């Protein structure tokens, strides 16, 4: 039987992981859906609300994620939690108020769903990337949920760090940029162009 053995090669430090967004051009006039993480295609990254805050912070750092959706034991959405919410400063504030560090849970520090604002999926389908940046810049947020209000379905998420990365903006991504920072770059006359390096480490969602 004829065989053909392929050679194996040593890897070098120059070899790097590639991601789909590196090969898809996104510009300010691109459809906003190009930057949308669709939960119909990608499972949302969730965390149980009764997870201890110290464990949640460690897990998010180890998985390189800055935001998780908080759910109850039945998988129902309760709110969002970010690394900023889980920061040492926030924990110390509660400890100073008399709580024990090990008793502080994700539900104690999360942003509850009643306090969250979201983009409409219907609006997003008609919008451009520029529209999203202009809309969210005044809120100083790093993430925004997208809801299909007709079906009462949380359809997805848009992250400022993803927007900056896909537009090849020279923004520091650690800490993650806000939509306001992206707005400032866009309206300062420095239009992002494909191929520009992104400063800092990737943030994930």
Describe the fold and architecture.
There is one protein chain. With 205 residues, this protein is α/β, with parallel strands linked by helices. It has one domain: CBS-domain (Roll), CATH 3.10.580.10. 25% of the residues lie in helices and 17% in strands. It has 7 helices and 8 strands. It has helices at 53-62, 88-96, 106-109, 121-126, 129-136, 160-166, 179-186; strands spanning 37-38, 46-48, 67-71, 77-82, 111-112, 118-120, 143-148, 153-159. The chain has a 4-stranded mixed beta sheet. A 4-stranded mixed beta sheet has the order 2-3-4-5. Strand 7 and strand 8 (153-159) form a beta hairpin. The longest helix is centred in the first third of the chain and has 10 residues, at 53-62. It is globular, with a radius of gyration of 20 Å. The protein starts with 36 loop residues before the first strand and ends in a 19-residue tail after the last helix. Residues 191-204 have low confidence and may be disordered.
């Amino acid at each position: 039987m004829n065989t053909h053995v392929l050679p194996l090669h040593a890897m070098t430090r120059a070899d790097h992981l590639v991601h789909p967004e590196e090969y898809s051009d996104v510009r300010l006039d691109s459809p906003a859906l190009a930057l949308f993480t669709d939960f119909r295609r990608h499972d949302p990254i969730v965390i149980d609300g009764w997870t201890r805050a110290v464990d949640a912070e460690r897990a998010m750092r180890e998985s390189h994620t800055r935001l998780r959706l908080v759910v109850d034991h039945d998988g129902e959405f309760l709110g969002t939690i970010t690394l900023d919410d889980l920061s040492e400063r926030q924990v110390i504030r509660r400890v100073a108020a008399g709580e024990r560090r090990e008793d502080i849970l994700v539900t104690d520090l999360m942003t509850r769903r009643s306090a969250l604002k979201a983009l409409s999926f219907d609006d997003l389908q008609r919008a451009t990337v520029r529209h999203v940046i202009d809309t969210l810049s005044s809120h100083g947020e790093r993430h925004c949920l997208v809801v299909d209000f007709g079906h009462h379905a949380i359809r997805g998420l848009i992250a400022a760090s993803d927007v900056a990365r896909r537009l090849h903006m020279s923004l520091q991504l650690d800490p993650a940029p806000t939509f306001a920072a992206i707005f400032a770059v866009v309206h300062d006359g420095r239009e992002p162009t494909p191929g520009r390096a992104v400063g800092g480490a990737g943030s994930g969602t």
